[in-house]
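Researcher: Structure for this, please.
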Amino acid sequence: MQTLKSARRYATRAAVEGIADAYEKAGLGKPEIPAAMPKSVETGLFINNEFVKSRKGKSFETIDPATQMVICDVQEAGIDDVNDAVDAATRAMYGGEWGKTGGYQRGLLLNKLANLMEENAAELAALESLDNGKNFGECSAADIPLAISCLRYYAGWADKALTGNTTELSGPGTGMGGFHTHFSYTRHEPVGVVGQIIPWNFPLLMAAWKLGPALACGCSVVLKTAEQTPLSALRLAELIREAGFPPGAVNVLSGWGDKTTYGETGPGTAISRHMGLQKVAFTGSTTVGQRIMIDAAETNLKRVTLELGGKSPNIVFADANIADAVAGAHVGLFLNQGQCCCAGSRLFVEDKVYDEFVQRCADAANTRKVGGAFSAGAVQGPQVSQEQFEKVTELIESGKKQGATLLAGGGPVSPDQKGFFVQPTVFADVDKSCDIWNTEIFGPVMSIRKFSSMDEVVDLANDTEYGLAAGVWTRDTNKIQHIVNHVRAGSIWVNSYDVFDANAPFGGFKMSGIGRELGEYALRNYTEVKQVTQALEKTW
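Model: Predicted structure, token format:
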């Protein structure tokens, strides 16, 4: 590794200002800016416990999607910066302080980080909401507490995650002497230096989902943020250093995936192809996940876990509590501006209650207030970027043209308004040939169709390349178990939707991914099993 010279260190903080003026100019009124909003933010690359400038000296703008105001310029990582980060992580892991840190101490560090996040929760929520556009109240109540809970959960696993087992060898190849002739056991060891690539929809929460199990198992990490939302992870890096994690244990880079803004290999591709990484974990689109698998296969066969796209069925039977099901379907689709991989975006309603249910869904969407992250009374913010805004609005137009019945919303909030705001949109009578039925929209677009029988709805629910999640609403336990047994999805919520806990594994069937996040299952992603057998003999 090229030594990180002191000349590379520089004042990487940038001021945060002009939010109120930007809201006024965007027509969003006077914002309720949290008192905890930081006056400045870290913008550097976090390598070896230092914030440094990129080797190319390049940076990119990160913007507030509610006003399109440039928040600040962030250092843009390239392949040389990835190499620096991997080298730092490798030194930390093999022969460095982090590799010698035991499970008990790793748990203390994770709990210290969780404590610091708790102390700075309002600031983290303010920064996340500013950079992502999500509602500040929702972020404060859900995203930040869930991230803290995740780290605490894996702190508890840190001195247990690498526990192996003893094995009795009694077959003919061992002399059939069992424990008398051989001592055999398994060691669970950290998989090594890992690359982690997080998405823009839940930046801080996804960082916690990735870092928690990796650090509990003793791996060192090179984490790449999404280029749309780098700021909260960079603040997290400051807290990681403050918590006392050794240099190189966690490295945080910002930048693009495939290509840099100046046309060279981007940090995402550099991570997935890096020969010094033993594993890559990715959350994002199925298309990018496929490319990461190819990169891993073509290089060093690094371990791969993927949490990818979804087109999740949400099934409502006529005997369900209709009020609860409408509310659950509403949250299951519109949460986070519809920017959820597990959004219940294919809503099936039994014909006996279809008309009533559809009208209630439309009424709920029509009363949903859209505004900036800090707009008074708003519950839905903007889409994260111009690219995402255009994708969502184009798909809405396709729904109109392909014969779906538009009952609410139907386009941008205002053609002349700044910000990437899309109306909460509800389509009914959506045919399975429609693009909005088959494409992961990742926006506030609800698509509803009726069904008449159990066999029909199970077939329709499984008629997708995805298998991330599903929901079912009914009072009949036999119906529940039939759906649970026959719908191919990694998570199934019963009379509820979007219920998450650090102890509950999450991941998909089919093209929704490989492996599981959260729970004990996630630890398996970050360990290798070593079998040890020793022949015993008398030495006395």
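Researcher: Any notable elements?
Model: Residues 136-157 form the longest helix (22 residues). The first strand starts at residue 13 and ends at 15.
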